[in-house]
Design a protein that fits this description.
The structure is a homodimer of 338-residue chains.
Chain A: E1 10-14, H1 15-28, H2 44-52, E2 58-60, H3 63-71, E3 78-80, H4 88-95, E4 100-104, H5 107-116, E5 120-124, H6 139-148, E6 152-158, H7 169-190, E7 194-197, E8 211-212, H8 222-226, E9 235-245, E10 254-257, E11 272-273, E12 276-282, E13 285-290, E14 301-305, H9 309-313, E15 318-323, E16 326-332
Parallel strand pairs in A: 1-15, 2-3, 3-4, 4-5, 5-6, 6-7, 7-8
Antiparallel strand pairs in A: 1-9, 9-10, 9-14, 10-13, 11-14, 12-13, 15-16
Helix pairs in contact in A: 6-7
Chain lengths: 338, 338
């Protein structure tokens, strides 16, 4: 099958770039040193490639992701790196044999974990991002409470999300060290074998954790590329040019493709198109100005590079693994929803 | 069923507000004067309510929306108000008895329509938004070409999307008049019974078209509400508070709910939460500062109001029609994808 036969908009993953990214990360963070985060791609077929690259456990952001990974036979060691209260759904998959470790950061989430049939937790520690995680000085007491409730405490996690795209890189390293010292201090009080953190932006400079939670390195986007990382953009959204204009009122000519904001994560801004300037996106359209007027015709296919990969993928039912214009495989995006 | 039992994030539609919106529009634009645009809600159950309110035809933005409306028995008079080249899918539903009129704006799209088995078209005219639509002065020639190819030309459409939220409203009216004069000029050359255009932002001031293509009036969002329209925000995203912080380094306290940017259309910016200031969204989280610290606890439910309703709905599998905390119906968002 050729990409020209795909209904657009369609998510494409360039196989060679994906394989290079998988290999580069497996070299830098081999085996259990990486716990790939599936929220970036929401695709069990891609997760299976990550396991084949040597990484045995996975990170999830939602209960649905946990359930989907278990259903795909990838539930051997899952970390749900997020607070949840609907813990009975986790208890149900654990009961059937999956291993799921849940992040907790409060008395309420510890008690929900115990109540729902969760057996293992990590203490989520705030390391500077104003989001989840307890203050480092309270981690030890929460671990004690968890153990009192019969939970196994596997260690700590702390996500330095505010530093993922921080530049310059030497300052990213310095600030990551500061954040991880908070996490290691908490770990001294908590114990356990896991110190989990990091992401695609800090995988190289975060040398304090026992495992990195990166996911976006597989697909990449224009934001992470701008952060100076050694991974290639393997993901794009294939579109069809549906309208070409000569310009309006003597203005510049433009073209329109069928890749709109319903097909793109927009929180990092507009996508980019090679050889063109993107003007704006609407629901089902991207309007852009080709560098060479006349070079774009109705029916042409274009590749649109998203600003933020994670929410882009979550909008599509499937991604297509391709080698240029040749479609190799169709991978369902089977971890969507909640 | 109570909303407390719903898995979060969950789309809620307040029944009374929806009914008020449906009634207000049906009074202002009764019957065929409104051709509701289903892209705003992607939900055939809601479209059925619009038909029950007296509107016989519908507007679609994608082929999938057309196919889904036909499957739901709502395919009596559909306008696909967008250019497409994959016209065989439309020909297939027309062959089985649906009535589908397709927008065309170029020789290529006219020829694709004829080739794919489409029988009826409107000429899409550019009225000032740099997107699709032919220049007004070319509309007559395109209509002639379409008729030569055996297509029935039902009239013209032109979308003044650049004016939907234009303020002040009297200037919105003046500029809409200018745009619609371009469309009426094209209509004089094209003929046919349809002059289709407008949207929720201009339904009251666009008195030149024969039918308005509004959809967002049913659900509304913070952007349209800011534009001074008489419709109520019926849509919200229900979330669960999963973490509450005392503040960090002496800073202000905050809370986190499980309504992240994967559950929200972000192209109009952050959502809002009553009684709180939203700081930022990440994939599965919204971090916000409650006006009254201590008023929010882990496990509380919050309603998050999206900035842009259309892409928000497209991220969810279903919406729940509610009366306060009582769940009345579950409506699948069955027109998603492409």
């Amino acid at each position: 099958m050729n990409t020209d036969e795909l209904t657009t908009p369609a998510l494409l993953v360039e196989s060679a770039a994906l394989e290079a990214n998988l290999a580069a990360m497996a070299t830098a963070r081999p085996g259990a040193q990486l716990r790939p985060h599936v929220k970036a791609h929401k695709c069990t077929a891609l997760a299976a490639r990550q396991r084949a690259a040597g990484h045995p456990g996975f990170t999830c952001a939602t209960i649905r992701e946990v359930e989907g990974m278990v259903a795909a036979g990838l539930g051997g060691d899952l970390l749900l790196a997020n607070e949840v209260l609907d813990t009975r759904r986790l208890g149900a998959v654990i009961e059937r044999g999956a291993r799921v470790t849940l992040a907790v950061d409060s008395v309420a989430t510890v008690e929900a974990a115990a109540r729902g049939g969760v057996r293992e937790v990590v203490i989520d520690v705030n390391v500077g991002l104003p989001r989840c995680g307890c203050p480092p000085e309270r981690a030890g007491a929460l671990a004690s409470l968890a153990r009192e409730r019969g939970l196994e405490v596997r260690g700590v996690m702390g996500y330095e999300g505010h530093l993922m795209m921080h530049t310059p890189e030497d300052d990213r390293a310095r600030r990551t060290e500061e954040a991880m010292k908070l996490l290691l201090g908490a770990h001294a009080d908590v114990g356990g074998e896991l110190v989990s953190g990091g992401g695609t932006g800090t995988y190289a400079v975060n040398t304090w954790v026992t495992e990195i939670q990166a996911g976006s390195y597989t697909l990449m986007d224009t934001s992470y590329t701008a952060a100076g990382l050694p991974f290639q953009q393997s993901l794009s959204v294939l579109g069809t040019v549906i309208s070409v204009s000569d310009g309006m009122g003597g203005g510049e000519p433009w073209a329109v493709a069928d890749v709109g904001l319903k097909a793109l994560g927009m929180d990092h801004g507009n996508p980019t198109i090679g050889g063109a300037a993107v003007w704006y996106c609407s629901d089902e359209h991207v309007t852009f100005k080709p560098e060479r007027p006349g070079s774009v015709r109705v029916g042409d296919r274009v590749r649109v590079l998203p600003g933020h990969v994670d929410p882009t993928v979550a909008k599509h039912e499937a991604m297509y693994l391709v080698d240029g214009s040749r479609v190799l495989e169709r991978w369902p995006v089977d971890l969507r929803g909640w």
